[in-house]
Amino acid sequence: MFKSILLLTLMGIGASAFAQTTEDQINIYLNCPSCDVNYVKNEINFVNYANDPLRAQVQILVSVQSTGAGGTLHHLEFLGKENFDGDQFSLDFQAEATLTNLERQQGLVRIIKLGLVPFVAQTPMAPDLNLAIKKQEPDSSSTSLTKTKKPLDSWIFEAYSSFNWDKESLRSTLDLRYGLSAELLSQDWRVRIEPSFYYQERVVRSNEEEIHSYRRQQGYNGKVVRSLNQHWSIGLINNVYSNTYNNVKLGLWIAPAVEFSLLPYSEVVTREFTVAYHMGRLYNQYFEETIFLKMNDKVFSHFMDVNLRMRRQWGDITMFMQGSCFLNDWSRNHLLLNGRVGVRVFKGMAFNLGGSFRIVNDQITLPRGDATLEDVLLGQRQLATAFDSNVNFGLRYTFGALYNNVVNTRL
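Given the sequence above, the corresponding structure tokens read:
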């Protein structure tokens, strides 16, 4: 069976790009965090690249979503403005996990070129547009139209490890991390099993004395999620862990969960608004006796997550809120607010604002006694707090040349 693969070749335009005036070329604004901009400019040289979206005739917004096979799904939205107002459509590019960065960039360039065709076709450059369709021969090793699916065909396995050692005359830091993940991802099911291990050792030398600090974290995270429809999902979450920083020798958390999406799950690439509720049992066994004079805890707790994410022509918004408490003592609770907003105010002007704030009333794992100076300076143990917060703000104003298509990476 022949498979038709659509390949867009704009060689005619590329060859005559310098013969055209910049007035003939369309002005585009590319918002693509996963793109190598210099590579895109070099490969697509028949357009003008605007420095601000409000100066563009075509805006290209690229969103990235992880896939079950360990790859990435790039969702490209092409939004026409000015004389292209009303022209709007989207294309997808799925990059397999085995692709190199160059192959991923080549795929993105191909899809961007394909998306620009309807706009270029309405300009004086249309006569230079060439379109070719290449037919690919079927795999000769394929003996049947259908293949028997093996039990592990839908699973993706990944093993990882990292080692980092920083050393100076008076201090050194060793970080070791490794783990394994196994994931089943389909339209109806999501199953993930992820054991992990982390070890850190710090050494500080002062007055011929060495101070050693150790942190160990290991455990297993698991979840099983069933999609019911475009708005509802149910699942079961299970975590087993040990963490010297949090004074937890053995921790166990198991909880059923339900999630409702106010928007269809099919729109998750560009916008998402979900509410999730968990209720389960927590068991902790401690290295040291806690401030509540306990060596272990068994409590029921519940929490709710609210997640909002939108990406629009004027900017993007990411908001997350989580609230939780123990069922036997509602005064043991925490509330987390986290968000980021990036907005285009006017031509050339953009700002971003982000931060988080957390009210903490559920630190049941804190060990008895005062933290030593070594513990504080080396971050060896968790400290008591009623809150934590951070704020960040950025402002950018671009002016001068409206468009710049030059690629120059010298020095």
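DSSP finds four helices and 19 strands in the chain. Try to locate this feature in the token string yourself.
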